[in-house]
Amino acid sequence: MISISEAISIVKNNSEPLLKQTKKSVEKAGGYHLFEDIYSPINMPPFRQSAMDGYALHLHEDLTYTLIGEIQAGDASRLQLKKGEAVRIFTGAPVPDAANAVMMQEKVKVDGNTISITHKINQELNIRPLGEQVKQGDLALKQGTKLTPAAIGYLSSLGITEVSVYKKPNIALVTTGNELIEGGLELTYGKIYESNSKMLLSALYILKFYDVTIHKVEDDYHQTLSKLKEVINANDLVIITGGISVGDYDFVGKALKELQVEELFYKVKQKPGKPLFFGKKHHTSIFALPGNPAAALTCFYVYVYIALQNMMNKKVNELPRVKAKSVSNFTKKGDRPQILKAIYNNAEVEILEGQNSSMQQTFAISNALVYAPEDVNEIKINDTVETILLPV
């Protein structure tokens, strides 16, 4: 049995970037990271562009100008201005070649075809120059950039319709247990509704991992062996819940051994989640989480999250940890470090009742986990505690 810090270190050192690429249409690439540098195919803006609603002027010594026309955004007309002439112009419209300033409409007086301004203005005022944002052939976005909504908008403005991005992992969720039945079926004696697959699927979706399949096996060795062989061969990451302990009907560990999965660790000195397995076969990472839902989700956030971030080649691979002031008392039982469900708000954290590994109700209202180390037996009000902030 190893410590939490040792287990985290092993996950970090044994989950590598996938370094696979896939093509995505720009509108479906949000949340992905660029696989390669993007160079601009155009100047942006592609023409001298008005930054204001107002009047484009060919400057001269006088403060009055002759109005000769109008240019709206999208117009392709190329009006030629002589000195002392002006055109009505709108934001985003192309500025005539001879115009060398745009005066905002609020500072212009109009009298028929004559306009007047109150003072001299500087050359190129309120004109966005050709290629001001980026010039044709220049680097638009670096490899590794996360494609946020703003980045998607920027690439779209350059006319880019498809990008090469880092492929996200294929993930298989495997739940085990004869006692599990689907919601909507009659709950007969001895059965419980299966929740782990839906819980973990939701956690993955929140993190924007969508290539996920769900598999269910009963407590049967040959069925477990067959299913695990199938999903390990077909996926980058396999997450199993249940069947990893040492009971007579816990077949996951035996099946993984027969499949020659390299065991990197099994059992972590922690509560909840002691019977946690992490291993690899070729380039597939395998986690076997405890069957109790709260324990499974805790292990997902503390360990599986790191592997997912490493697969996506992200430099920050752990959930954020902060110091917070406890607003509740808690007495820890036993000598194992404990990871506690909690509510964090404005640098304060409340450790909740109902910390049993099977209890989901408490986790349902949590937004944080509090780490109680091995040498801490009691947390008192106003104590400073290490707090893991959960994704929402």
UniProtKB/TrEMBL annotation:
- Record field: transmembrane: 286-308
- InterPro entries reported in the protein's UniProt record: MoaB/Mog-like_dom_sf, MoaB/Mog_dom, MoCF_biosynth_CS, MoeA-like, MoeA_C_domain_IV, MoeA_C_domain_IV_sf, MoeA_linker/N, MoeA_linker/N_sf
Q: Which cofactor does it need?
A: Mg(2+)
* Biochemical pathway: Cofactor biosynthesis; molybdopterin biosynthesis
GO cellular component terms, A-Z: cytosol
Described purpose of this protein according to its UniProt entry: Catalyzes the insertion of molybdate into adenylated molybdopterin with the concomitant release of AMP.
Name of this protein = Molybdopterin molybdenumtransferase
